[in-house]
Design a protein that fits this description.
The complex is a heterodimer of chains A (about 230) and B (about 350).
Chain A (H helix, E strand, L loop, with lengths): L4 E5 L3 H12 L4 E3 L7 H8 L3 E5 L7 H11 L4 E5 L4 H9 L4 E4 L4 H16 L9 E3 L2 E4 L4 E4 L2 E4 L1 H13 L5 E2 H10 L6 H16 L7 E4 L3 E4 L1
Parallel strand pairs in A: 1-2, 1-3, 3-4, 4-5
Antiparallel strand pairs in A: 6-7, 7-8, 8-9, 10-12, 11-12
Helix pairs in contact in A: 1-5, 6-7, 6-8
Chain B lengths: L4 H38 L4 H38 L13 H39 L2 H17 L5 H24 L2 H4 L3 E4 H11 L1 H6 L3 E5 L3 E4 L1 H18 L3 E9 L2 E8 L6 H7 L23 H13 L2 E5 L14 E7 L12
Parallel strand pairs in B: 2-4
Antiparallel strand pairs in B: 1-3, 4-5, 5-7, 6-7
Helix pairs in contact in B: 1-2, 4-5, 5-9, 5-11, 7-9, 9-11
The chains are: A alpha/beta (about 230), B alpha+beta (about 350).
């Protein structure tokens, strides 16, 4: 299947650029209309499979564009807005929006919402997230397992979150705060001591598949994959 | 006791003032319908004429009604003045005896009313000052971000992501607080009660504070679960104020616990910081020292914004109809824990916990 196209209607160029980048990382095509042009005509031309719509736009607001798009198309629409009231979200959904995200948002959450909407609307099965690898140590984050030299081990939620962040740094140091952030994103709101406990457990798990010494402590700053 | 002639004339005038616009509007509407009907019957070929007459009549009626509206508004202003003025009106001299007693009673009532009005005005002004100070506080993270940008340009180095993240979070929090204060004024139209997973709401709030909490080395323990019926956005607003306060004062640990029984869910946020003392607690909860509720924000020693977020949490809770109390370290020790501040939020438990979660 050719890659799906997402139209991002957003008047702030920085947000637009970063949002587009986050989606391109998932092999989605993006098209970016100028915020003051005729969104409906642009959409008809580009035929996107999903629309990301900012509420505050220069000419007509997002609600109005949503209603106009809905009059001719059932394309999934994700609203993005700085307004936080329940009533604003309710209005967006009543106008035919499919989901709602409040600014400021995390890019990962934004990409996840877009993917979920695409999956629901088109039975789209995105490519499984690429396996992370360095020096023969492979992490399958979805399955929460690591493998090395033909044998593999289950890591658990915290262990795989830590190893993911370490592998993403690709040999550079991941600071303790960065690793904490990885754990907190997984709802493990641990303190600094517990991080040490979690890293020790990860090292022990990796030792069972012969990958001992792959996680290296860098005194005074954090950890890295050797 | 009958009305004197002057009163009767006044009442008649008041009645006429109310009926005039209605009668005239009806007359115009009648004329409008008639014109349309006649023109329509006489000459079907000229509907534009009928339209023209209708528009002319309509705009005249609109202009007239606007003028009447303005007059009614002016009358209301006059009424407000008339209601206020008695406090200032000169009382006739009284003979000793019942008349004198009556006169001093009236004077005492006036003094009391003036004092209450002054206290209300002072509280409103103090609250407005705190609000303005909280908006000014936005400049701190903005300045920090600007300095980081300047340094990174000067040094040709990348922006320090972690530091930028902390400042941006602070900016978002202060902005949310200020916007929340503005939305409080228009509470009813903006709120909507749905079924909310309180543990999830708490977890999201913790995540919004994660950068500052991690950088301060504070761990959060989140226990229990409850489905509640409330406005999700306001619940998040209240939780954000409680957590942002706890994140500021906690030494190493914040404990959030959820439990439910008897139709009520209890959500507690407890930190291990220095806690709040009696006067602060009263001030934040909008109670005066005498304990009367709703006295509003009153300024106290210390920075104008200190505790303003908690005050807004109390205001939001009051409008949402949920219970909120904050206990200081002098509360009864529970299981040996008596340090820090404990915020206790009481929410209506969702009617049937076995039902599926409503979509967020």
């Amino acid at each position: 299947m050719a890659s799906l196209k997402v139209m991002i209607v957003e008047d702030d160029p920085v947000i637009r650029g970063l949002a587009a980048e986050a989606l391109e990382r998932w092999d989605l095509a993006v098209c970016l209309p100028e915020p003051d042009e005729d969104i409906l005509a642009y959409a008809a031309r580009e035929d996107p499979q999903l629309v990301v719509l900012d509420v505050g736009l220069p000419k007509l607001d997002g609600y109005e564009w949503c209603a106009r798009i809905r009059a001719v198309s059932r394309v999934p629409i994700l609203f993005v807005s700085a307004r936080a009231e329940s009533s604003a979200a309710v209005r967006a959904l009543a106008q035919g929006g499919d989901d709602w995200l409040t600014k400021p948002f995390e890019l990962e959450l934004f990409a996840a919402k877009v993917r979920a909407l695409l999956r629901r609307a088109y039975s789209w099965a995105p490519e499984p997230s690429p396996l992370l690898e360095r020096a023969g140590l492979v992490l399958d984050y979805e399955r929460r397992s690591a493998s090395f030299a033909g044998s593999s081990v289950e890591l658990g939620k915290n262990g795989s979150a830590l190893l993911k962040r370490l592998l993403e740094r690709d040999g550079r140091v991941a600071t303790r705060d960065e690793l904490m952030d990885a754990l907190w994103s997984e709802e493990a709101f641990v303190d600094d001591n517990t991080l040490t406990v979690n890293v020790t457990r990860l090292k022990k798990d990796l030792a069972t598949i012969g990958a001992e010494g792959m996680v290296e402590t860098v005194r005074g700053s954090g950890y890295r994959i050797a | 006791m009958g009305l004197n002639a002057g009163d009767k004339a006044f009442a008649r005038r008041g009645l006429a003032r109310h009926l005039e616009p209605v009668a005239l509007a009806l007359a115009f509407e009648g004329g409008f319908a008639l014109a349309v009907m006649i023109l329509d019957r006489e000459n079907r070929a000229l509907p534009s004429d009928a339209l023209y007459v209708a528009v002319a009549l309509g705009s005249f009626a609109a202009a007239f009604l606007a003028a009447m509206g303005l007059r009614a508004y002016r009358a209301r202003l006059g009424l407000a003045r008339a209601l206020r003025d008695p406090l200032e009106a000169e009382l006739p001299a009284a003979r000793p005896g019942p008349e004198g007693a009556w006169r001093s009673l009236v004077l005492a009532c006036r003094a009391e009313a003036r004092k209450e009005a002054a206290a209300r005005d002072a509280a409103a002004k103090a609250e407005m000052d705190a609000f303005i100070a909280s908006v000014h506080a936005l400049k701190t993270p903005v300045t920090a971000l600007s300095l980081m940008a300047q340094r990174s340009i000067a040094d040709g180095r990348a922006l320090p992501g972690a530091e930028v993240g902390i400042e941006a979070d602070e900016l978002a929090r202060l902005l949310d607080r200020a916007l929340g204060r503005l939305r409080l004024a228009d509470f009813e139209s903006g709120s909507r009660i749905t079924r909310i997973d309180a543990a999830r709401a708490a977890s999201e709030s913790v995540k919004r504070h994660r950068r500052i909490l991690i950088s301060r080395g504070i761990g959060v323990e989140l226990r229990g679960a409850a489905l509640v019926e409330t406005d999700g956005v306001w619940l998040s607003f209240i939780l954000d104020q409680l957590l942002s306060n706890a994140a500021k004062y906690a030494a190493a640990r914040i404990r959030i616990s959820l439990s439910g029984s008897g139709g009520r869910a209890v959500l507690e946020v407890e930190d291990d910081g220095p806690g709040l003392e009696g006067d602060d607690l009263l001030r934040l909860s909008g109670k005066s020292a005498a304990g009367s509720a709703g006295a509003g924000w009153s300024s106290a020693p210390g920075p104008a914004t200190s505790g303003y977020g908690l005050y807004l949490a109390f205001e939001a809770a009051r409008r949402l109809g949920v219970g909120l109390e904050i206990l200081g370290p002098d509360r009864q020790a529970e299981g040996g824990r008596s340090r820090g501040a404990l915020a206790r939020l009481e929410l209506p438990l969702a009617s049937d916990p076995l039902d599926d979660l409503a979509p967020a």
